Structures are given as C-alpha cells and as structure tokens.
Fold:
Amino acid sequence: MLGTKAPRRSATYSFAVVFIAARLLLPWSPANLEARAEAPPQGRTRAPLSNLNIESSPQLFATMCAVHAAGFDKDVSAVGFHPVRARLRGELLRLQGPATEALRQYYREHDLPDSAATLSRYVSFALVVGPPPKFTYRLSHDDLPPDVLTIEGFNEVLANFYREAEIDRLWRQVQAEYEREIERLHEPVTQLVLTSTAYLRELLKPTSPRTFVVYVEPMVGGKINFRNFGNEYAIVLNPGSDLPMEEIRHALLHFHLDPLAMRYKGVVALRKPLLNFAVRAPRLPVEYKDDFPALLTECLVRAAELRLHRLSAEKLAAAINEAEGDGYVLVRPFIRALAKFEKAEPAMSFYFPDLVRGIDVAEETRRLQTVVFAAALAPAAEVPVADATQAATSSGDDAELTAWLSEGEREIAAKNGVAAAAAFDRALAKYPDHRRALYGRAVAAVLQGEAELAKALFERLVVNPPGADGSRPGLPPGAKDPLILAWSHVYLGRIHDVDGNRELAVSEYRAALAVEGAPESARLAARRGIEKGYERAQERP
Structure:
C-alpha cells in the first residue's frame, strides 16, 4: 500500500465477491455481491470495506477545479460537457485573487503542448495526496510517481487556492450529483466485476493490500485516466451518458493479471524471443517494445476480453487479426490457451505458468515470420530511433546524408546493430557533429553491447550537444532537440541500471522527465525506469 487511505469519499460502493473455484462451471457464473456500504463520516479515517470500490474524491475535485480555473480546455466548446463541468467552468474562470493568479502563473509555467499530458500530471497528483485543505503527500518524496515530481510544489499553490476560492463550498454543492453518478455506475460495474473475476476464478480477499478504485469525476471531461501506484489501481472517469465499461473492464483485468508476469518471471522470460517480432509493428506503443512482461500481460488482457465478449468465430478471427496486426503477437496463442483454461479448475493465479508454457516459441516464430503488420496510423510515430532519424534532415540537406540516416534507422528497427553502426559511421565521417547520426550510432552501440561507447556518445549529446546541423524542422540552429535529449537521458539511465548504479540511473530518468517538449514515449520510459529500474533482458533459450 502507498499508505493509510485518508477519508476522501462522498459516497462509496464496495464489492465482496466470494465463490469456490472448483465449483465454477461457466466463466460468467454469478457470484454473491455485498450490499452498499455506509460511507464513513468526513474527518474520520477508515479502511475500505473491500479492495474494489466506486468513489468520489474531494482532493481530485479540488485539483480539477484548480486546473480549470487556470485555463485548462478554456477554448473547448462546452457542448457535450457533463452538467457539473459545464456549470463550474465559467465560474472558475471568473475567479480573481492573489492565490488564483499564483495558480494561473504556476499552471502556465508547467503547461505542456498536449492538454491530455498536462491533465495527466494533475490527476496523478490528486491520487497521491491527502484530503483538503492541506493536500499533503501520502508517501515519501522518493516514492512519488515521476510525473508528480514535475509539479511537486503544487501542494501549497492548491491549498492557497482552495481557501481563497472556497472550493469546499463548491464540493458541498455537487456532492448529491456525484452520489447519483456513483449510484448509476453501481449495477453495471457490479456485473463487470462478477463476470471478470469469475472468469479468472479468482477470490478477492478483503484483507489484501491491493485495491482497485473507480473514481467518478465529471471535471476530467472525456479523458479516462488509469493509474497503478504499487498496490493501488485507480481509474478516473467522467460518467457521462455512455459509461466506459470496456475501459473499466480492461483496467480491472490488469489489476488481476499484472502481478503474475513478475511472480512467474522465469517462465515468462523464456518467451521473450517473440518480442523481436512485436517491435517491428509500427502501431505497437513504444512502452511495450522494451518491456516483454508488460507486452505479455497486455496481450493476455486483450485475449481475455475477447473471450468474455463471446464473439462469433468470424468476428473473433477478425479481432485476433487486428490485434496481431497492431503488434500484440501473443493474443492468438493466448486465445487458444484460455480455451483450455476455461475447462480447467485452478484460479488464474495458479494456472498462469501452464498458460504461458502453452506458447510454443518455435511454432510462433515460424508463424510470425509471415505476419504483415498494419501501417502506422500517423507518419511521425514516437519511436526513439525512427523519429530521430526520419526527421533528421530538412529539405535542403544532403541527399547522401539522408540516405545514410534512413539506412541506419532501418537496420536499428531490424535489430541489426552492426549494419546500423556502419551506416551511421559513414554519416559521421562526413558530418562528425551531426547529432542525429551521433544518436543513431549510440543506439547501434547499445544493440552491439558496446556499453562504454554508447555511454560516451549519449553523454556527449546531453552534456555538450553538437553543432546546429541535424535539427528537426522547426528547431532553431543549435537548439537541443527534446527527443534526442530525453531519450539520451533514458538510455544513460538504463546503462547505469545495468551497471548497478541505481542513484545515477534515477538521476538520468528524472533528467529525461525534466526535458521540455520531451515525447510521451520517452516520458513513459523514464517513469518506468524510476518505478521499476531497468534489467538487461535474459536471452536464455
């Protein structure tokens, strides 16, 4: 647990699901449901009645009021807004006062080009602080999520704004509406909990430190935020007219399945060679391309969702093909393995090793050699090497240089470090200070296991960036390219992790998060590096 949960609910639903796995005949059999629990009085600390809850949060509400008062989505039409958000946005934007102006200044200084990324920081903040009016962190500084570290001084700013704007008055005004939304979610979420938990044949233990909370917050708009901080899982959503049941199910399946890949990491590591095929998929999110346990879990979650949907054979085949085309290469074998699991008796937490052993690496390797992955949805996907090299030259640059950089990029995508190094060496022989070529050469060194060379090149890029050539279009001469700068810090962090120097590794990951304009892919990699560290993959057969 991150710590004792402070009182934060205006209304709470708790679920206790009890059944005997050996007696379960169908994966969607009903189970017993605990009735609604009485919410604790404000001001008293009380542990949750079970580890699955639907809640509202005064600190989340206060944080969302603050970002709206500061100008979040102020130019977005209110058509389609939840009534609470539509009513409060105008009132919050009209607020005046010293604390409000200080809030707006702070927000401007920490704003990101992507509004969703900006909101994400503040959602994470709200989930790790205690109740108003102080909003103190519930955990130590070293345990704070990386994106919260970028706004760690927000507590005092929010506390001052909370008092000046009398947010507690607004909270009392909206509580009845929040309770109605929680009531509306209760029945569909209950059914979702029952079907998902019964399918996995898992017993939800009320004494477990692991918790899953659905937070009802209309002020987040259409952006659904899913978080996992240690043992705490949370999904923050606007209930709206269309309840996001698929997103809740997806998060709930992760809650059940995430621990298993680490618990049985030995059997998981033996399937890692299949990652070499997944990394070639243009649509596969970058966070899965160097984290095989995460990819395996995501594929299992998607396979379980397809089984729960009870699709026709034709629709199931189409859905598997689509998932595989996007790079989720283990969905197909997991579909076959889950069909066997459904006829067995053990809970998933015990059956998982057999499920993974059912993936035949040799057979899947032969099959995946003929798979054609779907094309990228957008031309400039956030891939640490591809972005850097594809965007390397402006229209006036030397065609020969462009060809060398493109060749190096293709070889890196194919995991051919030797050929990639040769291409980038040719570029550097003629353009010795070209930052894109230096970056590509450093990544090629990583692929070849040349840690000292890679470290020297990455340090050159972050400590003393080369000359102006090689900037992406739109960057001024001599500017530090945020993509190269952020990813160089990430790679340096990984090198230090492998060397066993955790303190230096964390310093580099935090430096990556501090890079203004860093791509989200690099930020995700840096956050994962701070939270879990980086271990060189085991390549045993």
Observations:
- The mean pLDDT is 82.
- DSSP finds 23 helices and five strands in the chain.
- The chain has three domains: 12-22+47-206, 264-368, 386-532.
